[in-house]
């Protein structure tokens, strides 16, 4: 057989496919012989062509012995014997009957099987041998040196001859069909081997689970990550212990990525704790369904990524920011209070120039304190430690207070805030301090990004058992390219040439998280040159 340096798995697969192909051919040969042999014996007694059919009987004996012992013979020997038998049958048929028999069929079948079993070079040699046999016998008949070994008129009138020809033709069809099937199986094995090369050494852990909830495939990274091999086909993720990183609760079997994928769901878990015999690891998981050619779900495809290093780095970063923020907030609060006392005259009247410098110090200390508070809120949100205390709140009174508190800030920009209250008696269940923080963020952004002497509108209305709070500015709008990132941390809009808006880019990110923590929704619509509108939606506790 063909020798190569391909890996043992593919070599074994191809050898197994070749063995199955040859076994099926020898089985078909045995069936054909069982039918044709009695016919040949009958024709011996009827025609007396003993010398002619002695060859047939010899070949039939070889076929019967080989077919009955095919499981014990090597693939190489079975392949050599079947090609030899076909060439002998082809040569004998052409020699005895010329083109009146099926000798040409056998020569062609021998070449086809050689092409499947051996290299192209070997196939060319066998084809050359078959062509030589054909041309030699053709030359013998053409020159008159050879004559048919039987009376062709008698042969053509024999039912057994026609039956033999028909059975041989059917046998050739079976050979072609099985050769094509075996070739397809080998191509699939090669393709599977290629995919294995691509996937086995993939750094991401890949596991494919079938409908019977058995592991169909997993790569080396999966074995390393889970620290074990599949037992009796059980998925690795079912043998391990996965827990939710935030709550620490174990994930049930139905919550695993593979099970969700088999239900037709696309699942993404940003962070989970994986407990194996090697210890605890932080992983990111994906799961999505794999489909059969019929369009039905056949597999659950899952990928696990070890993000322990990233998680540890993120934890250190969060701890550092939290510690620094706490350390900064204490002296900033003291500085802010001291400046406030000076500005309030606690130390007596101060010169006008000193008062101006103190006011600058006060504004910047407040800005720094606002930044520190934002950083602390962001860390609490990312760590799941943000505290929200929901109580029934008179929305109208709270929103009116927010507008009044920000009115002075708006006047610094030469603008004003108008509040249109269409829900004067609406009551919602939320944290009033956190809602004021969100509204303050939205109103301050609207003021900063609006032209001077413009109006920022805020309204409240009830619709479908919800309170809708809107904030609309008259600014330049949010460019379409930046709209998908507007709620991401540290994202800031590019300022217009005539505007300067210092900030951290945390306000909208924190506002979105706060709204969601309180069970609400936040959205926006914007068109360049026409401004931006943000809307908050909360379920009504009391519908006016």
From TrEMBL:
Its EC number is 2.7.13.3. Residues 323-542 form the Histidine kinase domain. Gene3D superfamilies: 1.10.287.130, Histidine kinase-like ATPase, C-terminal domain, PAS domain. It catalyses: ATP + protein L-histidine = ADP + protein N-phospho-L-histidine. Keywords: Kinase, Membrane, Phosphoprotein, Transferase, Transmembrane, Transmembrane helix. GO terms for molecular function: kinase activity. SMART domains: HATPase_c, HisKA. It is an enzyme of class 2 (transferase). The chain crosses the membrane at residues 25-44, 50-68, 80-97, 124-142, 154-176. It comes from the Bacteria. PANTHER family: OSMOSENSING HISTIDINE PROTEIN KINASE SLN1, TWO-COMPONENT HISTIDINE PROTEIN KINASE. This is histidine kinase. It comes from Rheinheimera tilapiae.
């Amino acid at each position: 057989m063909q020798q190569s340096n391909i890996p043992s798995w593919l070599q074994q697969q191809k050898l197994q496919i070749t063995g199955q192909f040859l076994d099926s051919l020898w089985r078909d040969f045995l069936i054909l012989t069982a039918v044709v042999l009695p016919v040949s014996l009958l024709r011996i007694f009827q025609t007396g062509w003993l010398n002619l059919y002695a060859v047939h009987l010899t070949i039939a004996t070889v076929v019967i012995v080989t077919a009955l012992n095919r499981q014990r013979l090597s693939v190489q020997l079975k392949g050599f014997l079947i090609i030899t038998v076909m060439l002998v049958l082809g040569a004998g048929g052409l020699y005895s009957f010329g083109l009146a028999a099926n000798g040409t069929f056998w020569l062609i079948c021998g070449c086809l099987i050689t092409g499947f079993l051996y290299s192209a070079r070997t196939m060319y040699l066998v084809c050359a041998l078959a062509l030589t046999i054909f041309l030699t016998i053709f030359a013998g008949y053409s020159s008159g040196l050879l004559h048919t070994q039987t009376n062709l008129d008698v042969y053509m009138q024999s039912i057994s001859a026609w039956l033999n020809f028909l059975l041989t033709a059917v046998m050739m069809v079976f050979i072609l069909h099985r050769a094509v099937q075996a070739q397809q199986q080998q191509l699939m094995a090669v393709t599977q081997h290629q995919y294995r090369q691509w996937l086995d050494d993939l750094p991401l852990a890949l596991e494919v689970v079938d409908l019977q909830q058995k592991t169909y495939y997993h790569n080396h990274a999966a074995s390393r990550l889970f620290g074990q091999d599949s037992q009796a086909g059980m998925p690795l993720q079912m043998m391990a212990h996965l827990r939710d990183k935030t709550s620490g609760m174990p994930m049930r079997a139905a919550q695993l990525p593979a099970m969700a994928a088999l239900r037709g769901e696309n699942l993404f878990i940003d962070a989970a704790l994986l407990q194996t015999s090697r210890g605890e690891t932080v992983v990111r998981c994906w799961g999505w369904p794999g489909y059969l050619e019929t369009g039905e779900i056949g597999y659950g495809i899952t990928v696990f990524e070890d993000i322990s290093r990233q998680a540890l780095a993120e934890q250190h970063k969060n701890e550092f920011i939290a510690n620094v923020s706490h350390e900064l907030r204490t002296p900033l609060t003291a500085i802010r209070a001291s400046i406030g006392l000076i500005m309030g005259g606690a130390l007596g009247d101060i010169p006008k120039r000193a008062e101006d410098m103190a006011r600058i110090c006060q504004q910047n200390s407040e800005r720094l304190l606002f930044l520190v508070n934002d950083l602390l809120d962001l860390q609490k949100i990312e760590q799941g430690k943000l505290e929200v205390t929901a109580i029934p709140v008179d929305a109208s009174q709270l929103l009116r207070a927010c507008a009044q508190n920000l009115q002075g800030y708006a006047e610094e920009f030469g603008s004003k805030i108008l509040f249109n209250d269409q829900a004067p008696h609406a009551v919602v269940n939320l944290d009033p301090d956190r809602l004021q923080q969100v509204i303050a963020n939205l109103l301050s952004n609207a003021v900063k990004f609006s032209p001077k002497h413009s109006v920022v509108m805020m309204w409240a209305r009830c619709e479908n058992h919800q309170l809708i709070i809107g904030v609309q500015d008259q600014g330049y709008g949010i460019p379409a390219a930046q709209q998908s990132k507007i709620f991401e941390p540290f994202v800031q809009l590019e300022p217009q040439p005539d505007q300067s808006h210092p900030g951290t880019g945390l306000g909208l990110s924190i506002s979105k998280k706060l709204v969601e923590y309180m069970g609400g929704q936040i959205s926006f619509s914007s068109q360049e040159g026409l401004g931006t509108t943000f809307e908050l939606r909360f379920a009504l506790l009391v519908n006016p």
